[in-house]
Amino acid sequence: MNVAAVVLVFLMLISQCKMEEEKSTGFPVPHHGFAELPVPDDNPMRPEAIALGRKLFFDPLLSRDSSISCGSCHFPEKAFTDGRSVSIGVKGRKGTRNAPTLYNVAYHPYFFLEGGNPVLETQMLGPLETPEEMDFNMVELTRRLEKHPEYPSLFAEAFPDRTVEPYTISRAIAAYERSLLSGNSDFDQFYFFGDSSVLSKEQLRGWQIFKTSCTHCHSSFTLSHFKFENIGLYEHYEDYGRMRVTRDTADWGKVKTPTLRNIALTAPYMHDGSMHSLREVIEHYNQGGKDHPNKSPLIQPLNLSDTDKDALEAFLHALTDVSIN
User: Fold this and answer.
1) 157 with 197, same domain?
2) φ and ψ at residue 117, rounded to 5 degrees
3) Do 227 and 296 contact (CB within 8 A), yes or no?
4) Is 322 a member of any domain?
5) Could you tell me if 103 and 208 lie in one domain?
6) What's the CATH number where 13 sits?
7) By the 8 A CB rule, do 208 and 314 touch?
8) End of a domain among 160, 178, 196?
């Protein structure tokens, strides 16, 4: 598939999203602390579309050699991450980034670590067409699904006025991903329902440290402000981060702040999976990160004692959704 065709498909998909007309359709959210689910007018949360999207998500037919699916890098039991430093694509090809959780992705204002995609409906084109991931393309995928013995009828049920096409493929997967909501943690019971008994004394102490040290970036019910920050992970970044989009060297090494929900399930950490434990992450922030000209001024030494670190780590475990496993 040539570059012009790829661009044409992308523009066709994104032009139909009409995200400026987003509205809520009353799809149930975990609890009152969550905002209403933003749903685009052209992709309502219909059960048939969500079910079709789930089937596509876990089907290896979406990769060129039918060896991996979206679910190969996003395991439900790991909060839709894969437990690897970087994900593995077709033919064992290694990627360069750590697979992010997909829970609550409906609330993200943009996608990928550099924020290079503004719409969930077109996000799937990235992994689909990246050589280190699925190494496929939407045109060939459409042809493959059209010839499948089961998919045409499923698409007809999910999208009665459409066919198997890039528009419906992307919207089915987006509908499924938008349905992945997580908000049943001890922290939710404590913070949104006022039940302090669910947290231990150590976790309550950790919460106080978290409020002081972490909520500048990890805020609201999503536990992320979704801005781009350089946290001083390296003195020299191989991954340009936000600079890939802006071409501004001031954005070198800046990546989208991840949610901390289910953080105890999503190791290893950082954009490249270079840290393997929560304690290692806490130590990084406690030391104030490495020197880099773009490092956020928010990253300063925390001067936590070992007892403080224990408490903060204990609190982070309270962010795990108890209904996942």
Assistant:
1) no
2) -130, 125
3) no
4) no
5) no
6) 1.10.760.10
7) no
8) 178
Looking at 149, 178, 207, the residue that finishes a domain is 178
Structurally, the chain folds into a number of domains equal to: 2
The predicted-structure confidence for 289-322, as pLDDT tens digits, reads as follows 999 999 999 999 999 999 999 999 999 999 999 9
Q: How far apart are CA 282 and CA 212, in angstroms?
A: 14
**Tokens encoding 65:** 């050699």
Q: 35 with 128, same domain?
A: yes
Which tokens go with 299?
Answer: 């990253």
Q: Tell me if 129 sits within 8 A of 5, measured CB to CB.
A: no
The first and second tokens of residue 99, run together, are: 């697979």
Question: Is 269 a domain residue?
Answer: yes
Q: Is the pLDDT of residue 3 over 50?
A: no
251, two tokens: 């954005």
CB-side exposure of 267: number of CA atoms within 13 Å?
10
Contacts of residue 149, defined as CB under 8 A and 6 or more positions apart, other chains included, come to none
Q: 42 pLDDT exceeds 60?
A: yes
Residue 93 has pLDDT above 90, yes or no: yes
**What tokens were used for 53?**
């999207």
CB neighbours of 147 closer than 8 A, spacing ≥ 6? Answer: none
Q: Which stretch of DSSP H or E encloses residue 279? A: helix 278-287
Domain holding 128, by residue range, is 3-178
For residue 274, the Cα-to-chain-centroid distance in whole angstroms is 18
Q: What is the pLDDT of residue 324?
A: 84
